[in-house]
Every structure is written in structure tokens, then in C-alpha cells.
Amino acid sequence: MERILAIVSGRVQGVGFRWATLEKAEALGLSGSVRNEPDGTVRVEIEGVRADELLAWLHDGPAYAWVSSVAVSALPALGEDGFRVG
């Protein structure tokens, strides 16, 4: 299994994006993390068998977000448990 890194751009800070991502990830049984970056993007690391479902959701995000792009790359799996907001 691999870990997916997604960098989400657009209006993604100050709109509940991190907390909505946490809720969605937990519902899908995924592990990883989500955090705001200084450049205005949101960094999401996803690990689990349903990672593609969260990745697809990231292209829309929560109601008040506006996603302009999602850059995706692969990372080595960490095998951690749970999803956290940073």
C-alpha cells in the first residue's frame, strides 16, 4: 500500500476544509493527516484502501471551498493509525 500526498489549491483555508476532510477520512477508515500550508494550500496525506474516494472528494471539498487544483504524488506508506488535523 502507498500513501498519497495531495496539495489542494484554491479557496481552501478558512472554510472548514481541514475539519471536513477529517470527517470524510474517518468515515472512510483512512489514516493520514491534513494541514494548512503558509502558501494558502492544504496538504493532505492519505493512506488506506479507500484513499481514492477521499482523493476524489478533495476535488470539490466542503460547501464553502472552491478547489482550483489538486496536485497528487506518492509517498512511502507509514502504516499509522487514525487521521489527524495539523
TrEMBL record:
It catalyses: an acyl phosphate + H2O = a carboxylate + phosphate + H(+). The active site is at R18, N36. InterPro entries: Acylphosphatase, Acylphosphatase-like_dom, Acylphosphatase-like_dom_sf, Acylphosphatase_CS. Its EC number is 3.6.1.7. One of its GO terms (molecular function) is acylphosphatase activity. It comes from the Bacteria. Keywords: Hydrolase. Pfam families: Acylphosphatase. Residues 3-86 form the Acylphosphatase-like domain. The keyword Hydrolase applies. Belongs to the acylphosphatase family. This is acylphosphatase.
